Amino acid sequence: MDLPVIENTPAQSGGCSAGSCGSSTSQMDGLADEIRARVQDHPCYSEEAHHYFARMHVAVAPACNIQCHYCNRKYDCANESRPGVVSELLTPAQAVKKTLAVAATIPQMTVLGIAGPGDPLANPERTFETFRELAAKAPDIKLCVSTNGLSLPDHVEELSKHNIDHVTITINCVDPDVGAKIYPWIFWQNRRIHGREAAAILIERQQQGLEMLVARGILVKVNSVLIPGVNDEHLKEVSKIVKAKGAFLHNVMPLIAEAEHGTFYGVMGQRSPNPEELKNLQDACEGDMNMMRHCRQCRADAVGLLGEDRGDEFTMDKIDAMEIDYEAAMQVRAEFRAQATAELEAKRARAHAPKQPQAQVVQFMPRVSRTVAEAAPTTPVGRPVLMAVAAKGGLVAVHFGHAKEFLVYEASTEGAKFVGHRKADAYCAGDDTCGDAESILDRTIKALAGCEVVLCSKIGYEPWGNLEAAGIQPNGEHAMEPIEDAVMAVWNEMLAAGKLATAAMATRCA
Amino acid sequence: MALEIIESCVNCWACAPLCPNQAIYEAAPHFLIDADKCTECVGDFADAQCVAICPIEGAILDELGVELNPPGSLTGIPPERMAAAMAEIRAR
Q1: How many CB atoms lie within 10 A of CB B18?
Q2: Residue A294 has what DSSP assignment?
């Protein structure tokens, strides 16, 4: 008689594929192996992958069928790109040409998304024509689409016919009373519907679309905009519900609301969440759902690695001047992908290799592991510490003064965990900008609020002093080391020096 | 009897596919309505479709030059309630 074998050591990932093992790869650990295989080269779905793989958006979908209080179609704002101002609205034929040109120039390109600047499914002809052409001409490029969900149920059938196995739905609420504060109206069945009634229809369509996609095996990520005082507490419920319905990843993003963007929220003075509020909510949702922390809220025409927009290199006039060997380019991409995937696998295997017996016990109790660790007398106890890292390619590799963003890691007994990122202006951009250096440095220090350490490859004398004065310890001793190793080395030094007594946890790390 | 798109149009394309008469066409610097074809959707829909979806206040006028999406129609908050709404939102 054959009995089913219970595998306690999954072949590829070294033993902690089901739980949160504490390294920065933990976002992926919550995923089933089958899903992980499908997203491991998608920079927007995998925190690991975004160091290796690039994506682009083509702005073929200008029309929208709903009005959101955080969006203004008049201006080119941080959330979107409006046709005719700085970005180019593309025809499907132009979009295909641009995608093939980018994919030939940037071998890291694995994903083509349509995300606006309106709603892709409110422009179904333009969106699906682009997908059809690309599926034929570049079958190795993954296609994905991001939608507000209103038209989604009408297009699930068509979506499942193409090479599309990823869809993102923006779901900000599941309660029409909350929705009425976010969406003033929708265009529905040839009428403009307002207020609560509009929100109720939108919510119903989003949930229906989510269920239909999951039933067809299409991976669904849910985006939510965190709006303080409107849906902050409510998003915990959203997270539970979308997880229960089969979404595999939840991306809670901070509201961007500036008066100069001309959005309703911006003009009315609705505030954005601070990094601490964002992290607290993401942490609260994480018990139920795989949370995405590395989203850069990119534009509807972004090109390249996340956080490194190369859109300027690929305007239509520049593309027209390029000579491209498409077949050769696809070959180069295939070689790059094989190499990067192997590197990723190797990195995963290293990160997940059991280092000591206790680690194996923790694997099987992911959510209570901290309690277990604290209770065990042999395990060193120390409070979690937030550290900012000036990083490139997974290494501590950027000069403090040149950093445009810092990755934030939480170091604890569970290891180093990636929890977010903070934007900064590079304050040391050259002689002519040094007059501003002080105020930019002040802003950067403010942006790092809550972090106790900043790791960088190098740092100048002055910012060193200012950071120390602000209670942030600069550290340039781990240049070119892998981030997780460096972060844990610093944490262990702090632990050894007696700086991590758990009593301080509540006040220092709230 | 015809509607008119004016210069505040941002060329978002939302209206054009909805027109039951194919009266809306792409033009520079913005979309236009062919007055000979426009019926204001009478007989086809209860509301003029271009007006119902347009995301810009005041971009579409009726034959008397009246803004069909007046101030406040985009946000759902009429001008006289703006101050109160702002106070509530700033308290969040």
Answers
A1: 18
A2: -
Say whether B13 and A62 touch across the interface (CB within 8 A): yes
More confident residue, B60 or A368: B60
Delimit the domains of chain B by residue range: 1-92
How far does the CA of residue B36 sit from the closest CA of chain A (Å)? 22
- Which run of H or of E encompasses A493? helix A483-496
**Could you give the 3-state DSSP secondary structure of residue B24?**
strand
Residue range A327-352: average pLDDT? 84
Interface contact A67-B74, CB threshold 8 A = yes
SS3 content of chain B, % helix, strand, coil (to 5): 20, 10, 70
Does residue B92 have a pLDDT over 60? yes
Q: How far apart are CA B8 and CA B58, in angstroms?
A: 7
Q: Does B87 touch chain A (CB under 8 A)?
A: no
**pLDDT tens digit sequence for A442-476:** 888 988 999 999 999 999 999 999 999 999 999 99
For residue A194, the chain B residues in CB contact (below 8 A) are 76
Q: What is the mean pLDDT of chain A?
A: 82
Q: If pLDDT is split at 50, 70 and 90, which confidence band does A508 have?
A: very low
Confidence (pTM): 0.81
Residue A6 has pLDDT above 60, yes or no: no
Helix (H/G/I), strand (E/B), else coil: A421: strand
Q: How far is A352 from A374, CA to CA, in rounded Å?
A: 21
Q: Please tell me the predicted confidence (pLDDT) of residue A352.
A: 66
Judged by DSSP in three states, A215 sits in helix
- Tokens 């201006």, located at residue: A75
Contact B52 A194 (CB under 8 A): no
Minimal CA separation from B17 to chain A, in Å: 9
Helix (H), strand (E) at residue A37: helix A33-39
Asked if A86 is an interface residue toward chain B (Cβ–Cβ < 8 A), one would say: no
Fold adopted by A364-508:
Nucleotidyltransferase; domain 5 (3.30.420)
Q: Are A151 and A124 in contact (CB under 8 A)?
A: yes
Query: So what's the pLDDT on residue A38?
Result: 81
Q: Could A269 and B86 be called an inter-chain contact, meaning their C-beta atoms sit closer than 8 Å?
A: yes
Query: Which class is B1-92 in CATH?
Result: alpha beta
CATH 3.20.20.70 fits A26-334, yes or no: yes
Measured between CB atoms, which of A74, A83, A185 is closest to B76? Answer: A185
Q: What is the mean pLDDT of residues A134-161?
A: 94
What's the pLDDT tens digit per position in A101-132? 999 988 888 889 998 789 999 999 999 999 99
Please state the three-class secondary structure of A98-166 as a single string.
Answer: HHHHHHHHCCCEEEEEECCECCHHHCHHHHHHHHHHHHHHCCCCEEEEEECCCCHHHHHHHHHHCCEEE
- Strand-strand pairing, A473-475 and B4-5: unpaired
A191 → closest Cβ in B10, B46, B90:
B46
Q: Give the chain A residue nearest B16 (alpha carbons).
A: A63
Length of chain B, please? Answer: 92
Q: How far is B34 from chain A (nearest CA, A)?
A: 20
Per-residue pLDDT of B10-31, as tens digits, reads 999 999 999 999 999 999 999 9
- How far is Cα A251 from Cα A115, in angstroms, rounded to an integer? 15
Q: What is the mean pLDDT of residues A79-102?
A: 73
Q: Which residue of B has its CA nearest to A192?
A: B52
